[in-house]
Design a protein that fits this description.
The chain is of the alpha+beta class. It has helices at residues 48-56, 98-107, 117-130, 146-158, 176-193, 204-210, 228-233, 238-243; strands at 3-12, 22-32, 37-41, 63-68, 71-72, 83-86, 164-168, 196-201, 213-218, 221-226, 250-257, 260-263, 266-272, 277-283, 288-290, 296-305, 309-315, 324-329, 340-345, 350-354, 360-361, 364-368. The strands form 4 sheets. It has a 7-stranded antiparallel sheet with strand order 21-20-14-11-12-13-22. A 6-stranded mixed sheet has the order 6-7-8-3-9-10, with helices on both faces. The longest helix is centred in the middle third of the chain and has 18 residues, at 176-193. The radius of gyration is 25 Å and the shape is elongated. It starts with a strand and ends with a strand. The model has no long low-confidence stretch (mean pLDDT 92). The structure holds adenosine-5'-triphosphate (ATP).
């Protein structure tokens, strides 16, 4: 089921004179193709949950429209939209068994949709099998792990075969290992069912790893939409560049002078097509190459071995953050006895941004220095 958001806006009025109106969702326009998993991503307060509530029908938009396929569902109540919703806190009924929890949405079906007991059980077991909890059907939620409870919540959302599945931070309450496992499970289930799924998270790694497409948001405004790798490789502004990637991008004060990009007094790249100006320079951690004659000189802080790679921690006066993190192959030798470390930079891992607007400035590169 294709989902279309058209000029979708949600404003919340201020509660008092000093409390300003908030535009939680500001003129959203995008289309989610049928059968895809899309990640809504952004820091706290950027409007992720509000977008989900508008899609589910829990809240009404101030303006704009929502379409599921060709159906305009903007005015439809939640129960008529055919959406399945999974929340962070599972929201299972504690006094009911797993089976009863999953059966619950089917028991409320009316009229032509009403099912016989055996039809309901068949559907409940089918959903439970899909999320691999069919052997736990007689337990109560308190007798399950967090990951198992979240699977029950997903089964309950899937049992009516929703047109659209909405997941609101579904992994937040799980520990690191379970998060990883459950996010892979969600991807598998989504691929098997082919239900168009919208997944909300503030965790960029989570969104990047399972989404076909991500929507990066800030203060109710969409910053960029695209495939995760494309957005990572081609961020439109400093916010997006900083939001995606672990360790995060390293940001420096820099300038362009006569076709050269400088960090402090050190020219790091020959660049074309950019007039002289002050800029922010962003360099991805994997964009540094250790080189004794490298153009960028940093004070060596330490080296962390991470198995396949090494993380070199260093400092530089022009760095905006307190430290610079560069990821290099474990085969490279870092002389930890030295006070300084020198790098060259990989042109495709370097971005420059306008100092005022923080929009990306595209450049062509002649050569690394
Ligand atoms: P989080 O990751 O913290 O859950 P979020 O990205 O989901 O954040 P929303 O919950 O959608 O953000 O909130 C977006 C903005 O709208 C915030 O500034 C929030 O304070 C405001 N907001 C949300 N719900 C209401 C409401 N019912 N009344 C007034 N303001 C609201």
């Amino acid at each position: 089921m294709k989902v279309v958001l058209q000029n979708l806006t949600k404003k919340f009025p201020g509660r008092s004179k000093n409390d300003k109106e908030v535009t939680a969702v500001n003129d959203f326009n995008f289309e989610i193709p049928d059968g895809r998993l899309i990640g809504l991503l952004g820091p706290s307060g950027c409007g992720k949950s509000t977008t989900l509530h508008l899609l589910s029908g829990l809240q009404k938009p101030t303006s704009g429209r929502i379409f599921f396929g060709e159906d305009d569902v903007t005015g439809l109540p939640a129960e008529k939209r055919g959406v399945g919703v999974v929340f962070q806190n599972y929201a299972l009924y504690p006094h009911l068994t797993v089976k009863q929890n999953i059966l619950f949405p089917l028991q409320n079906l009316k009229g032509a949709d009403k099912l016989s007991r055996s039809e309901m059980l068949e559907k409940a077991y089918e959903a439970a099998k899909l999320v691999q909890i069919d052997e736990l059907m007689d337990r109560k939620p308190s007798e399950l792990s967090g990951g198992q409870q979240q699977r029950v919540a997903i089964a309950r959302a899937l049992v009516k075969r929703p047109r659209v599945l909405l997941l609101d931070e579904p992994l937040s309450n799980l520990d690191a290992r379970l998060r990883l496992q459950t996010r892979e499970e969600i991807r598998r289930i989504q691929k098997e069912t082919q239900i168009t799924t919208i997944f909300v998270t503030h965790d960029q790694e989570e969104a990047m790893s399972i989404s076909d497409m991500i929507v990066v948001m800030k203060l109710g405004v969409i910053q960029q939409i695209g495939k995760p790798q494309e957005v990572y490789d081609d961020p439109v502004n400093l916010f997006v560049a900083k939001f995606l990637g672990t360790p995060p991008i390293n940001v420096f004060d820099g300038k362009v002078r006569d076709g050269k990009l400088y960090i402090g007094d050190e020219a790091v790249l020959d660049i074309r097509d950019v007039p002289d100006q002050e800029v922010y320079v962003g360099i991805r951690p994997e964009g540094f190459v250790l080189c004794e004659t490298g153009s960028l000189c940093c004070k060596l802080g330490g080296v962390e071995v991470m198995g396949r790679d090494i993380s070199v921690v260093s400092t530089n006066q022009s760095s905006v953050g307190p430290t610079i993190r560069s990821i290099i192959s474990a085969e490279s030798k870092v002389d930890t006895g030295k006070a300084e470390v020198r790098f060259n930079v990989k042109p495709n891992k370097v971005f420059i941004f306008n100092r005022e607007t923080e929009e990306r400035i595209c450049f062509r590169c002649s050569s690394a220095m």
